[in-house]
């Protein structure tokens, strides 16, 4: 086995979180030697068995930095097919960074974003579509999203697209053959009818796939959610309750026009992406109002509004003024503080009928109503899970873009036929569609595709 | 021992369609050139069909002309019928085809060669090339003829066509000759192989020539040429070539023909296994057609005159290598040929040619500096394909001697680019024929705009005269101005306009529209809309044609241009010549082998090698970007 790369790379390969455990990953020829310089244990790592965990300590000269577990993966039985060492530490990000700095000091260089996967790819360990799916798996937050990434990896999407692509190719080949051998192949009106009916079929299939993208986005990115309501109704209690029940994950969502902090909260098998939560996080005394003006955009763009009300006081004018900007169909009314009233049903009944269907009697304090809330959100947004075994959701923006491009190209052919343009023109758009679909499958080459895929990785994957 | 010794800048081996263009290009670029032919009677010989052009081949002739080549001018002087094919289809597949008077064509080309300065035409068989090692690189120094004469040159261009170790076959008759019974060249192959050049064996064939007096044309369909003849050459004045044309005749084979062929199939040297060479799939013999299209009960045959001064008629569509007696039998089943008298037998010809991946895109050998190759020797078929390569090899040999940048036409610039790229990049197991389907960017590579595409290159290398170039710039300016103008002319939806549209069978207007947008309707064109266009300037026909096509199909043209941009990105990613593919473990073994064999110049070229998958290309892209490259 030839070594492709002379240098050894390292990075923290777990996300930058405050989670308990983190891993420093080192890959390359000198990874074991480098680790040996800072790791002390009963066994030297150069004698360590592959895929076995060793207990010991990381030292900076004579100072103990942390108590760690170290695993050696010997080439080629590793992710990159190089020698890989993984140091698991219990320290927080400060300790992890100290270990990483020690690794750098002893001869590794910082890994570029996606470089481990790039090495895995270049060593022949994984192919491009797998690399792309790896990226999706890494950035997926819910179990369903993970399922979907793996399904894409396994090729249900590939099969659907490949079959459309095959048919496009066969029609293109027929047209081309007819141009060069008109004696044996005929491009008459009957042919136009034939390709027309095929086109309708392809357009429908692509349209269906594109249609799943919206659901796909919900699976991948979570439901865009806003918690709204006047002050002191219990918005932050609700958030804290949800966040406490399930582990909160904080992510920076890059690429949005404004640098909004989105808090992702896992609820059962769903993810809520609660945006603009800074204000809600603050203690309720300090909260003026939710700042209707400021969060108007948030509310409008949200897929789900959790409108919190105080069950002990009736619908106020302030409530109404906030609600005037809210699309009722995507709103759940949370009648909070039910622990404080004896007859919560009566309070619910006092609501206008158009609200009542989506109202939940709730107590952020006792947790009453959480099950109902989960069920409700599930009904509203995750009802597409019938047939989940065969259905596929397009979650990759690049895929969505390419599907739309091929849809557009095939629409152009349709237009050409209707305008009476001769078949030799069809092939331009047919080949565009063919290429776009091929790019999804990774069987067409685009010069910047590779960069695109690898640069989307977080550091250290 | 005394022997003749002469000095030239360039020697061209072979004076067929490739050799003539190569030698003329070199001489016109100011270098001295000697061109060898085995017979003075075979200069620019058309040993097969009596026509120039046709689908996609017509494009090649136009391109050769736009670059400053001779073929278009020669056929404009010697055609006896001319037709623009595919006129019912889009402009990309319009293709010019002319019946040639074979003798006259050949004589005309010989006249041009012999009246060109710096050019020496010599009848002699070349026996070998001469090379020496300079700093570890093999370099050409000249060549030697069978008489022992030595010619010292800086470059040699091999355009040996179908002559190398040629043998002609029909039935069990084998003749060791080139086409038409001409002398084969039996010495050069050994010299080439001794210099490490890999050769392969290809075959092609030709139908019988039949005496026209033995034919009954009343049983066939007469086909005439165009009423208004379009010249091949951009420099030919259309008015100067309008003339009386001769018809060709259409007839068909039938079940009886096919039965005879099937019954005697084992007597054909191909099916009997005597021929080792691979034949062309796209120009099949009648035996191949009967086998391949077993469900077809007839095949088209065009009966074409070989010239004005001969009775010989060419039976297009029925090439064969059957025994003489079977040929009589099968031709005589065809309506109109019942009493056919054969003048020349149909035959198959087998010859040595190059494995063309040994060439750079400049058509220079990768391993021998100064040695170039063009034409059928490179594994192509057809006069036009040969001429195009001959021209490019001549241009690049001259540029190389002058120390100038080579000229490489890429796939988005011309059919010539497609042809050469395909030849040197793709595994070719049969004679390569140009086809419209091989050109990805067909809509941009039209025969009508070959001058706009390529004449600037011809000007750069010195094959296009200053006046011609200035005229092209003026043409471009007129086109651009007029397109801008009609994009600004608005038509209102009034009764007068709608009445006229009704006469054109075109839907009435609901709202105002620009003239340019109205032109995009399939039933309308630029000239028809002059009725709406009071301020239209008087423009030459070739300008009006371009305005019409460029506006009418602008949407398609723009989309195709986007495809070209993508293509160029990969072409621009060059691969270092020293790359060792064995150092990239993630390339599949087959890809490693193919890449090592073809040594592509760019990622784009690599992606077209069969056996190199897109996944391999992705690996290469990642590898080249910073690692090891």
What is the domain total for the residues of chain B?
Answer: 4
End-to-end Cα distance of chain A, whole Å, is: 23 Å
Biggest sheet: strand arrangement of chain B: 16-17-18-19-15-20
Structural class of chain B: alpha+beta
Q: Could you name the CATH homologous superfamily of the largest domain in chain B?
A: FAD/NAD(P)-binding domain
Which fold does the CATH topology of the largest domain in chain B refer to? FAD/NAD(P)-binding domain
Mean pLDDT of chain B: 94
Give the overall shape of chain A: flat
Beta-strand percentage range of chain B:
15-25%
CATH fold node name of one domain in chain A: Rossmann fold
CATH H-tier superfamily of one domain in chain A: P-loop containing nucleotide triphosphate hydrolases
Uncertain parts of chain B: none
Question: What is the CATH-assigned architecture of the largest domain in chain B?
Answer: 3-Layer(bba) Sandwich
CATH classification class of one domain in chain A: Alpha Beta
The coarse silhouette of chain B is globular
Main sheet record of chain A: 7 strands, mixed
Please describe what this structure looks like.
The complex is a heterodimer of chains A (461) and B (629). Chain A has 461 residues and is of the alpha/beta class. Chain A is built from 17 helices and 14 strands. Chain A has helices at residues 31-38, 93-105, 115-122, 128-138, 143-154, 156-180, 189-221, 235-245, 278-281, 292-301, 317-323, 344-349, 353-356, 370-381, 397-419, 426-441, 449-455; strands at residues 9-12, 22-27, 39-40, 53-60, 63-73, 84-89, 109-110, 223-228, 248-252, 261-267, 270-275, 304-310, 331-336, 359-361. Chain A has a 7-stranded mixed β-sheet. In chain A, β9 (248-252) and β10 (261-267) form a beta hairpin. In chain A, α4 packs antiparallel against α5 (143-154), α6 packs antiparallel against α16 (426-441) and α7 runs antiparallel to α15. The radius of gyration of chain A is 28 Å and the shape is flat. Chain B is α+β, with helices and mostly antiparallel strands. Chain B has 4 domains: 5-204 and 351-461, FAD/NAD(P)-binding domain; 209-348, Elongation Factor Tu (Ef-tu), domain 3; 466-559, Arc Repressor Mutant, subunit A (Orthogonal Bundle); 573-624, DNA polymerase, domain 1. Chain B contains 19 helices and 25 strands. In chain B, α2 runs parallel beside α9, α3 packs across α4 and α6 runs antiparallel to α8. The radius of gyration of chain B is 26 Å and the shape is globular. Chains A and B meet through α3, α6, α16 and α17 of A and α16 and α19 of B.
């Amino acid at each position: 086995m030839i070594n492709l790369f002379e240098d050894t790379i390292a990075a923290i390969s777990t996300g930058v979180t405050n989670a308990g455990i983190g891993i420093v990953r080192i890959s390359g020829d000198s990874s074991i030697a480098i680790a040996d310089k800072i790791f002390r244990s009963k066994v030297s790592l150069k004698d360590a068995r592959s895929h076995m965990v060793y207990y010991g300590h990381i030292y900076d000269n004579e100072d103990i930095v942390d108590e760690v577990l170290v695993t050696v993966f010997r080439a080629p039985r590793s992710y990159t097919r190089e020698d890989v060492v993984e140091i698991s530490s219990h320290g927080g990000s400060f300790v992890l960074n100290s270990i990483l700095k020690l690794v750098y000091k002893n001869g590794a260089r910082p890994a570029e974003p996606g470089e481990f996967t790039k090495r895995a790819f270049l060593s022949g360990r994984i192919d491009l579509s797998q690399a792309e799916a790896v990226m999706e798996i890494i950035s997926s937050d819910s179990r369903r999203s993970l399922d979907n990434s793996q399904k894409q990896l396994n090729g249900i999407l590939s099969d659907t697209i490949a079959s459309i692509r095959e048919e496009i190719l066969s029609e293109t080949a027929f047209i081309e053959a007819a141009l060069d051998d008109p004696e044996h192949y005929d491009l008459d009106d009957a042919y136009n009818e034939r390709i027309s009916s095929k086109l309708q079929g392809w357009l429908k299939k692509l349209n269906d796939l594109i249609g799943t993208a919206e659901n796909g986005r919900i699976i991948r990115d979570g439901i865009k959610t806003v918690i709204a309501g006047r002050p002191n109704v219990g918005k932050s209690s609700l958030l804290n309750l949800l966040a406490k029940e399930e582990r909160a994950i904080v992510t920076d969502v890059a690429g949005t026009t404004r640098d909004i902090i989105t808090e992702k909260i896992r609820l059962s098998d769903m993810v809520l992406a609660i945006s603009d939560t800074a204000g809600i996080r603050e203690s309720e005394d300090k909260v003026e109002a939710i700042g209707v003006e400021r969060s108007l955009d948030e509310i409008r763009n949200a897929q789900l509004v959790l409108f919190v009300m105080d069950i002990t006081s009736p619908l106020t004018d302030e409530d109404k003024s906030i609600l005037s900007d809210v699309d009722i169909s995507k709103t759940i009314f949370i009648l909070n503080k039910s622990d404080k009233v004896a007859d919560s049903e009566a309070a619910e009944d006092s609501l206008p009928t158009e609200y009542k269907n989506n109202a939940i009697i709730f107590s952020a304090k006792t947790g009453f109503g959480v099950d109902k809330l989960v069920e409700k959100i599930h009904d509203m947004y995750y009802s597409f899970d019938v047939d989940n075994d065969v259905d596929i959701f397009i979650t990759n923006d690049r895929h969505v873009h390419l599907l739309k491009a091929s849809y557009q190209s095939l629409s152009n052919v349709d237009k050409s036929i209707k305008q009476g343009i001769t078949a030799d023109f069809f092939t331009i758009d047919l080949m565009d569609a063919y290429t776009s679909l091929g790019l999804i499958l990774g069987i067409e080459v685009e010069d910047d595709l590779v960069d695109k895929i690898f640069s989307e990785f977080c550091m250290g994957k | 021992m005394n022997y003749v010794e002469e000095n030239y800048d360039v020697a061209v081996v072979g004076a067929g369609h490739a050799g003539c263009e190569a030698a003329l290009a070199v001489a016109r670029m100011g270098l001295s050139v000697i061109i060898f032919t085995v017979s003075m009677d075979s200069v620019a010989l058309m040993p097969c069909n009596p026509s120039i052009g046709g689908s996609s081949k017509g494009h090649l002739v136009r391109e050769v002309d736009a670059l400053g080549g001779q073929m278009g001018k020669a056929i404009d002087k010697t055609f006896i019928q001319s037709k623009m094919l595919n006129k019912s289809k889009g402009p990309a597949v319009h293709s010019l085809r002319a019946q040639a008077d074979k003798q006259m064509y050949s004589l005309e080309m010989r006249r041009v060669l012999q009246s060109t300065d710096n050019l020496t035409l010599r009848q002699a068989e070349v026996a070998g090339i001469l090379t020496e090692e300079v700093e570890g690189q093999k370099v050409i120094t000249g060549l030697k003829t069978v008489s022992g004469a030595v010619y010292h040159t800086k470059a040699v261009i091999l355009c040996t066509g179908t002559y190398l170790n040629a043998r002609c076959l029909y039935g069990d008759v084998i003749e060791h000759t080139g086409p038409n019974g001409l002398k084969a060249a039996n010495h050069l192959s050994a010299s080439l192989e001794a210099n490490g050049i890999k050769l392969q064996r290809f075959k092609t064939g030709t139908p019988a020539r039949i005496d026209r007096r033995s034919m009954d044309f009343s049983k066939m369909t007469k086909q005439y040429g165009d009423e208004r003849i379009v010249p091949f050459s951009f420099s030919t004045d259309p008015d100067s070539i309008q003339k009386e044309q001769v018809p060709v005749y259409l007839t068909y084979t039938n079940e009886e023909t096919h039965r005879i062929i099937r019954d005697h199939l084992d007597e054909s040297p191909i099916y009997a296994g005597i021929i080792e060479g691979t034949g062309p799939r796209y120009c099949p013999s009648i035996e191949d057609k009967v086998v391949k299209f077993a469900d077809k009960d007839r095949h088209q045959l065009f009966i074409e005159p070989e010239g004005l001064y001969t009775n010989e008629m060419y039976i297009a569509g029925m090439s064969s290598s059957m025994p003489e007696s079977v040929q009589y039998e099968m031709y005589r089943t065809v309506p109109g040929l019942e009493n056919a008298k054969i003048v020349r037998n149909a035959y198959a010809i087998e010859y040595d040619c190059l494995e063309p991946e040994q060439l750079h895109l400049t058509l220079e050998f990768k391993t021998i500096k100064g040695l170039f190759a063009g034409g059928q020797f490179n594994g192509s078929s057809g006069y036009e394909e040969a001429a195009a390569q001959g021209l490019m090899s001549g241009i690049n040999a001259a540029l190389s001697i002058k120390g100038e940048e080579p000229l490489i036409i890429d796939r988005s610039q011309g059919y010539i680019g497609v042809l050469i790229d395909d030849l040197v990049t793709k595994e070719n197991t049969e004679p390569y024929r140009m086809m419209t389907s091989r050109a990805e960017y067909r809509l941009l590579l039209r025969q009508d705009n070959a001058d706009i595409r390529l004449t600037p290159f011809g000007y750069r290398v010195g094959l296009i005269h200053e006046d011609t170039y200035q005229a092209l710039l003026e043409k471009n300016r007129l086109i651009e101005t007029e397109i801008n103008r009609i994009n600004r002319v608005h038509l209102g939806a009034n009764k007068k306009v709608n009445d006229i549209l009704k006469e054109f069978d075109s839907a009435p207007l609901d709202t105002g529209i620009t003239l340019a947008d109205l032109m995009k309707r399939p039933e309308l064109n630029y000239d028809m809309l002059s009725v709406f266009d009071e301020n239209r300037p008087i423009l030459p026909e070739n300008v009006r044609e371009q305005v019409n096509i460029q506006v009418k199909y602008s949407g398609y043209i723009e989309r195709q241009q986007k495809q070209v941009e993508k293509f160029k990105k990969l072409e621009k990613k060059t691969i270092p010549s020293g790359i060792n593919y064995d150092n990239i473990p993630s390339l599949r073994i087959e890809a490693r082998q193919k890449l090592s064999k073809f040594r592509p110049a760019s990622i784009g070229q690599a992606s077209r090698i069969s056996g190199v998958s897109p996944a391999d290309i992705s690996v290469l892209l990642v590898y080249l970007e910073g690692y090891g490259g």
